[in-house]
Amino acid sequence: EIKVGAVDCADYQNEDICQDYEITSYPTIRFFPPNTTKSDIGTQRESWDKHVSSLKADTIYYLESIQNHYECFPDLEAVGDYSEYNYEEEESKFFIIEDEFSFLGKEVILNIDSLCGNSSNFIKRLLLTQNSSSLSLRDTPALAFWNGTNLTIVKKDVNADEVNKILRLHYSSGADPAVLGGDIDSLLLDDNGQIEFGAISDVSVASGAELQRRRYTVNLFDLEKTLVYALTDEIGSLSRESFSSEATKALEDFLLVVKEFLPSESVLHSVLDNMDLQQLLDVSQDQHPIAELSRRYDETPWYSCRGSKPQYGGYSCGQWMLWHTLTVQQHLQNRGDPRLVLKAMNGYIKHFFGCRSCSRHFVEMTEDGQAFENVSSYKDAILYLWEAHNNVNARVANTTSEDPRFPKVQFPAPTHCPQCYATDDAVATNATVDFLVDMYTNIDTRHTAQRTASGGRDLSTGGTNDAFLNYVQSGLLVLFSLVLML
To answer: Is the pLDDT reported for residue 300 higher than 80?
Structure first.
């Protein structure tokens, strides 16, 4: 099994452990393989994204990187392509059909199998690389069942909890998987062991006020929540010893553009105006100038960036909203190098953005900033970012990162800006700029952060290195080294 433990480095009892394992910043997340020796200080996690989905993905990446050293690890590789796989050779079995960006299949296999124990053979992964007659990328991840004769799609757009429940019900009661793809939340066994389930409710595409909120409303609270998370959770959690001169310059540029071009209505200006680069580099995360604000923003949900499920929208949406707003604000203020905001964005995404694969894709797209050479005006900067955003949306459309309630389509849609699609290129370009300037100027200021209470669980080792090592040796450990921040 994968064990997860926490060590509070603010507790003096853990001082020796934190020193021996060279913990210099908080939170630090380390991966340890099975049978770790006392001299092994683990592998540092590159990403600083604290979302559960991101941590799961990075854990799976790590497992795959050491898989060849441990023959007992379960096989996480896909057994083939959905449209080409020869099912006739298989006994009855479940398949998770997913695209290359999905981690669901690997997560489910790890939930079922122990790392070095008995591995199951009743569920495997299949990749869907293009739409077929019976399944589209938008339907994935999907759960299918092969009964030895026919393949049945049990449920589309399935999650890990739903897969586990279907498997449990099938193997405990013999229930036919074909009837288990309804409303999973209502799948219960009655006193006679029969399955009861509700009707399937397909996800409909949002429209009207809901679409307006999600795609066409710029919310000040979401901008602030994004900036606070960036400063405290991404930048604030990094080890200062790891800052290169390039990363330091990127941080300086980021701080400059948010001070200059964050909408004047923001309450964060009172903090930002008194914040300098050296202050950010010198203080620990719990002493960060906006640490108290961070707790308030963390506990208040997103407004415009709220997706249909927690895994959609959120911080990545907020990042795009922030940078679009900054380019428009610079255009309105008519000062500075037209490439200033774009260069700051490239530096931030390259060095600090928690999703490292997203960071690599973005830097490749911008040619590490070289693509900005053709930007000679503020309108050029607005249009460059607009086009880049649409290109990214096109790349990830119909993948597991897309919210089915709010599909990634060309922005703005013809219904919201008909002139943006004019046959005359000059008319379309001017209309697009006007639309973006209007949208990112009319900022919704109605929603604010609310203070709420939160709690957490701490797994203390009691400060004993031997006890800590015994815990690590018993299986893979993801170690959170935390300073108390309440």
So the answer is: yes
